[in-house]
Amino acid sequence: MHYFGGKARVAKYIVEYLNSIRKDDQPYIEPFVGGGWVMSLMNGNRYAYDKHPYLISMYQQLQNGWKPPENFTESEYNDIKNNKDENPHLTGFVGFGCSFAGKWFGGYARSGDRNYCLNAHNSILKKMKNMNSVNFKCKDYSDLKPERALIYCDPPYKGTTQYDKVVGDFDSDKFWDTIRIWSIKNTVIVSEYNAPEDFVEVWSKETKTDVRNSKNLKENRIEKLFLHNSIKL
Predict the structure, then answer these.
(1) What does the alpha-carbon distance between residue 5 and residue 59 come to, in Å, rounded to a whole number?
(2) What are the residue ranges spanned by the domains of the chain?
(3) CA gyration radius for the chain?
(4) Is the distance from CB of 14 to CB of 192 less than 8 angstroms?
């Protein structure tokens, strides 16, 4: 399923790094599971959180055997957009999977004969094959109290599109302060383009984003992983 800011292009590389530092039997946590690209490639004891209620509802119903639609018209899309709470799990699927660039209800996705809904259907069911044992919960990252876990954070990047009407604006300063606290008892890895000075870059890879420039070309960015300088691997 396409997801704005998702890690489809770099997930396997991020997973390689995470597995290289993961300790035996260490729980794995994602406080911002999003499109689930990284989570779907991890194994073991896994916990997936997100503050987005429709997204988590979708994952929970998928675990219960729900199958998302393979086709969705623009009229149906607009009806869901205006009646989000009638079927929250369907809203979660349509809001991202049937929207332009995977942006939350950012406009009905269309491009010639391409069936975005079917693509999202196939993608999410493929990922769910390795996520049926994941513990999905709708929870804000700031309410978590993790200990002795490997934590991968893919928060809303500073200065990028956010879902304020659903989960509220994201406070980057508060986030980094939380990561400093978590880093005392956990191994915490953060995806971002930049980080405060007390964080160390441990991995990077150039990739294209869903953001387009004035020439309608996808921009290249350097995806990076950061670790607090107090953590010794």
Answers:
(1) 18
(2) 11-228
(3) 17
(4) no
**pLDDT value, residue 167:** 65
H helix runs in 32-141, sequence order: 53-63, 74-82, 88-97, 116-128
Three-state SS for 202? strand
Q: What is the mean pLDDT of each run of 10 residues along the chain (233 residues)?
A: 65 97 97 96 97 97 97 97 97 95 90 90 96 97 97 83 64 96 98 96 83 58 94 87
pTM here is 0.90
Instruction: Please check whether residue 147 is in contact with residue 61, taking contact to mean a CB–CB distance below 8 angstroms.
Output: no
What DSSP character marks residue 101? Answer: G
- Considering the domain 11-228 in this protein, what is its CATH number? 3.40.50.150
DSSP-assigned states of every residue in 133-193: T-EEEE--GGG----S-EEEE-PPPTTS---HHHH----HHHHHHHHHHHTTTSEEEEEES
